[in-house]
Design goal:
The protein has 9 helices and no strands. The chain is mostly helical. The mean pLDDT is 86.
C-alpha cells in the first residue's frame, strides 16, 4: 500500500493546487450562510473525487497488475493518453494566458456564487472536483495506479482515501481558516482569492504540462517495462 500511495502523491498535489475551486469556496464562504455552504462545498468536493476514484478502481479491480506485479498494458495506455491530453492542454493554456496578470478575469458563472444556496454549493463542489478538466484525469490516473499496484481491495480503498485527503487540502485550507477565525479570516481569504484569480491560467498551464509529462513517462515505463 505504501508504494501505491507514493505513486499518487504527485497527482494528489496536482489536484490540490486548483485555483478556481479555491476561489469558488472562498466566494461561497462570503455568502450569508457561508459556514454551511463551505462545509457542503468541501463535502461535494470530497465525494466527487472519491466517487470518480472508486469507479476507476471498480473498472480496474485487482487485475490492474500482471502476475509479476507489473501494471497491466491498459494502465500504460491510459496514462499515455491522459498524459498527452494534459500536456497538449497545458501548452494551449500557456499560449492563452494573459500577459499582464492584472487583466485576468474569472469565469462569468462565478458572479452568481454570491447567491448560491448551501444545496447548490454541494453540487458545485461535486462538479469542480469530478467534472474538472484537470482533476478528473489526474484522479483517474491515480486510481489506475492504485489498481495496478497488486494490493488487496481494502488497501486500495485506503490508498484512495489518502489520495482524496491530500488532493483536497487546497479546498479545505480556506474552510479550516474560516471555521477557526470566523470573520477575521475574510481579509486573508480575499488576498488568496485575488492571487488565485490573477494567476489561475498560468498555474493551470504549468500543472497541466508538467503532470502531463509525468503521466507520459509513467505510461512509457509501463509499456516498455
Amino acid at each position: 500500500m505504501g508504494h501505491a500511495v507514493g505513486d499518487v502523491l504527485g497527482l494528489a498535489a496536482g489536484v490540490a493546487v486548483s485555483p478556481l475551486p479555491i476561489v469558488a469556496i472562498i466566494l461561497v464562504l462570503a455568502t450569508p450562510r457561508g459556514r454551511l455552504g463551505g462545509v457542503l462545498f468541501a463535502l461535494g468536493w470530497l465525494l466527487g473525487l472519491a466517487a470518480l476514484g472508486a469507479v476507476m478502481l471498480l473498472v480496474g479491480g485487482t487485475g490492474g497488475a500482471s502476475a509479476h506485479q507489473h501494471p497491466a498494458t491498459w494502465v500504460g495506455v491510459l496514462k499515455l493518453v491522459l498524459g498527452a491530453l494534459l500536456a497538449l492542454f497545458g501548452a494551449v493554456q500557456w499560449r492563452r494566458r494573459p500577459k499582464d496578470p492584472s487583466q485576468a478575469r474569472l469565469p462569468t458563472w462565478m458572479a452568481a456564487i454570491d447567491r448560491v444556496t448551501p444545496a447548490k454549493a454541494l453540487g458545485l463542489g461535486l462538479l469542480l472536483s469530478a467534472g474538472n478538466l484537470k482533476n478528473a484525469p489526474l484522479t483517474i490516473a491515480a486510481a489506475a495506479s492504485i489498481s495496478s499496484a497488486g494490493i488487496s481491495v481494502p488497501e486500495q480503498i485506503g490508498a484512495l482515501a489518502v489520495f482524496v485527503v491530500i488532493a483536497s487540502l487546497g479546498v479545505l485550507a480556506p474552510l479550516a481558516l474560516y471555521l477557526v477565525m470566523g470573520e477575521r479570516a475574510k481579509g486573508i481569504l480575499a488576498n488568496w482569492r485575488e492571487w488565485a484569480a490573477r494567476h489561475n491560467v498560468a498555474v493551470l498551464a504549468v500543472l497541466f504540462f508538467v503532470l502531463g509529462l509525468k503521466l507520459l513517462g509513467d505510461g512509457i515505463s509501463v509499456l516498455t517495462g
